Amino acid sequence: MVKRSRIIAFFLLLLLLGGTIGGTAEKIVRDIKLGLDLQGGFEILYEVKPAKKGDKIDKNVLLSTVSALNKRINVLGVSEPNIQIEGKNRIRVQLAGVKDQNKAREILSTEAKLTFRDVNDNVLMDGSDLVEGGAKQTFDDKGKPCVAITLKDANKFKQVTEKVLSMAPNNILVIWLDFKEGVDSYAKEVGKEHPKFISAARVDQVFNQTDVSIVGNFTVDEAKQLADLLNAGALPVELKEIYSTSVGAQFGENALQKTVFAGIVAVAIIFLFMIAFYRLPGLVAVITLSVYIYLILLIFDWMNGVLTLPGIAALILGVGMAVDANIITYERIKDEIKLGKSIMSAYRAGNRGSFATILDANLTTIIAGVVLFIYGTSSVKGFATMLIISILASFLTNVYLTRLLLGLLVQSRAFNKKPQYFGVHPSVILDITKTTDDTNIPTKFERLDFVKHSKKFFIFSGALTVVGIVVLLTAKLNLGIDFASGTRIEVMGKTTLNANEITEQFEQLGLEPKDVVLSGAQKEIGVARFIGVLSQKQISEVKTHFKKLYGEEPSVSTVSPTVGKELARNAFIAVLIASVGIIIYVAVRFEFYMALAAIIALLHDAFLIVAFFSLTRLEVDLTFIAAVLTIIGYSINDTIVTFDRIRYIMKKRKVKKAEDLVEIVNKSLQQTFGRSVNTVLTVIITVVALLIFGSESIRNFSLALLVGLISGAYSSLFIASQLWLVWKSKQLKEGKRKPQIEKDLEPEV
Q1: To pair with 131 at 20 to 30 A between CA atoms, which of 143, 426, 562, 657?
Q2: Which helix H or strand E contains 389, and what residues bound it?
Q3: Three-state secondary structure string covering 245-313
Q4: What are phi and psi of 86, to 5 degrees?
Q5: What's the mean pLDDT when you consider all of the chain?
Q6: For range 645-674, the mean pLDDT
Q7: pLDDT at residue 518 above 70?
Q8: Integer distance in angstroms from the first to the last C-alpha of the chain?
Q9: How high is the pLDDT of residue 107?
């Protein structure tokens, strides 16, 4: 008898979820903050140095510097800046949505130390003599822009003007901003058309007053900027720029539009795939995946997180990975139906049997995500954060919510004798009265003998490894500025660009690029790399020049040699820690030989990605490392699915000889082959969508993921389990720990 109350409950719950999402999704999306790579802006890492000899950089000095930088950012009118102290002597500044990046960089790095000097460069007064907040832009008696300041002590200004007046005919009061001792001087600058000092006024009388005007060749904006700087106060330290990246607003807007479109395409294809392949459970998966996407955005909004381009990529990738939980469960249910069980019994057994596998697979990816967060820079941290949130949200929705919704439909008994609604044709279902614990689950891959060709797979992988080593030793990696240091400038045009023309434009600015590479569907993006770090002045000139030439402000990234070495070291440590973490986890949950086989397969995948990038000369940057770590965390999923099935079959059979192990591994691979293909296919769909429709900025990242996913699927099926078989067979033949074999592989309760 059909229980209609269950079906009504299903649709009421569906209505509740749909109403909640429909009523709040738009506001959540609108409230999420976008990173600088999506709306334009820049990020700078400063090394904090003492302003004077003998000064020390401690926590209080760093906090004072952050406070001073905040005041300057308020001058810029930037909302919600991100300023962080890193280590003992570094400050990272992130400003998204800055319209005039050149001005912003100048205001941040200028020390704003005002000094009044005579022609011999002796200090007569400095910024400490000004009333706090007493500077403002005004006009002189001739209508020219100037800066009016208020002094604390009129008598001191009287003494200064008396002293300067007595120096006639050199009775000139010189006002400097950021005078460099031993470098700058009035004598050097006085004959120049654009001297470094702000003004040099002749003093013809003594002034006993607190109101003073700084007159120079100012525009209104320049006078206002100087007034704002003086009001913000001088920096207590010297800031040295050691890493920076800036993104033009148009670059960010294009990246956002392209990547969101790629996500829509990927999600739509996955939804269609799930419904076509899994029928009723697939429809439930579409519902839970929609809730999953909503939940991720909601959590990210609650966290006040900043969404970056890699973060969106992680969200899209997360959809493909979230489907894995559904596929693992649904395939288990299909297996039970094929063994002749009722829909209700198959549903319960499938849920029970898949939970541990899903948990193991997701936790290994979380390990990689945590390592990425600890050792990554800001954009990579954004990717890692979204990856971790995605996995946790996947567990809530695609495990618990899926079971709730599908459970209501199953318990309604409306589908009791309709296995086709679960993607199982009645012709493949066995008679339950004729099945035992040893009965093999029907599969269309029964004729495939995976173990028979294991040596061929080992030889093939060994050959790929040797070729990869040769390629790496000869061609090496095409390291981006993240690791090699230097400057990277990305120019965008509205039409097809020419590499020679871009090179000529840089040469007009006195710059010689190491190389210029064109990218984009219409070759409308030109990427130039330079050896060495461009100065702030050079970056300003480049931005102004190319914005005037092409109408779009270029994106500029700089990395000092010190930071480049640190990033390379952190990348190596991250891969090492992630690998060790996964070894320990798999060894605890399964057994040591399985852990060893799994990590060899993972390193095989990571190495092939590296070799592929070396062969193709694609640029290796920080997102490449993020891709490698993601593959390390993700590709073990299929390996765990296979090992879980080996453990499951081992529980039901006694192993007496090596041939028994061969049969178990073969059966395990045959039974999980379709599942492995489907799980990796959904992620490949998202990656291919990112490659075809996504932003150029994450093209190499997506390509690295694609190579890693294909390699991961191959190694999970043909390397990891085969290696385990070789070692376990050898152990069995030697007669060591014979009674322990079954115990090692018993699933934990």
Answers
A1: 143
A2: helix 378-395
A3: EEECHHHHHHHHHHHHHHHHHHHHHHHHHHHHHHCHHHHHHHHHHHHHHHHHHHHHHHCCCEECHHHHH
A4: -125, 125
A5: 84
A6: 84
A7: yes
A8: 35
A9: 77
pLDDT number for residue 749: 35
DSSP state letters, 207-263: ---SEEEEESS--HHHHHHHHHHHHH---SEEEEEEEEEEE-HHHHHHHHHHHHHHH
Rounded to whole angstroms, the Cα distance separating 691 from 712 reads 18
Q: Which residues, in sequence order, are bridge partners of residue 173?
A: 201
CA distances in angstroms from 32 to 309, 382, 659, listed in the order given? 13, 13, 58
Q: Is the peptide bond before 426 cis (omega within 30 degrees of 0)?
A: no
Instruction: Give the per-residue pLDDT at 328.
Output: 84
Q: Which of 300, 388, 418, 294 is nearest to 630 (CA)?
A: 388
Are 243 and 558 within 8 A, CB to CB?
yes
Q: How far does Cα 380 stand from its chain's mean position?
A: 3
- The rounded distance, in Å, linking the Cα atoms of 611 and 600 is 16
As a three-state string, the secondary structure of 336-374 is HHHCCCCHHHHHHHHHHHHHHHHHHHHHHHHHHHHHHHH
Q: How far is residue 199's CA from residue 21's CA, in Å, rounded to a whole number? A: 61
Residues 6 or more apart in contact with residue 570 via CB below 8 angstroms: 375, 376
* Sequence letter at residue 391: I
Contact 286, 323 (CB under 8 A): no
H or E stretch covering 117? strand 114-117
Helix%, strand%, coil% for the chain, nearest 5: 65, 15, 25
Q: How far apart are CA 162 and CA 597, in angstroms?
A: 85
Contact 93, 46 (CB under 8 A): yes
Written as six digits, the tokens of 208 are: 């006993």
Confidence of residue 738 (pLDDT cuts 50, 70, 90): very low
Token readout for 676 is 């492995």
Count of CB atoms within 10 A of residue 640's CB? 27
3-state secondary structure of 303: coil
Encode pLDDT of 604-616 as tens digits. Answer: 988 999 999 999 9
Q: Could you give the CA distance from residue 422 to residue 406 in angstroms, rounded to a whole number?
A: 11
Length of the chain: 749
Q: Which helix (H) or strand (E) holds 413?
A: none
Cα–Cα distance for residue pair 96/42, rounded to 1 Å: 6
Cβ contact 570:668 at 8 Å: no
Cβ neighbours around 89 below 10 Å, total: 17
Question: How would you list the strands of the sheet with 123-126, edge to edge?
Answer: 123-126, 114-117, 172-177, 199-202
Question: Which amino acid is it at 407?
Answer: G
Question: Considering the entire predicted model, what is its pTM?
Answer: 0.75
Given a cut of 80, whether residue 448 has pLDDT beyond it is yes
CA 651 to chain centre: 42
Q: Spell out the residues 6+ positions from residue 324 whose beta carbon is closer than 8 angstroms to its own.
A: 358, 361, 637, 679, 682, 683
| Residue 151 DSSP one-character state | B
Looking at 465-548, which runs of residues are DSSP E strands? 478-479, 486-492, 515-519, 525-530
Contact 388, 376 (CB under 8 A): no
* Token output for 41: 């802006």
Question: What gap in Å lies between CA 212 and CA 214, rounded to an integer?
Answer: 7
| Structure-block tokens of residue 436 | 């035992």
Determine contact, residues 65/340, Cβ cutoff 8 Å: no
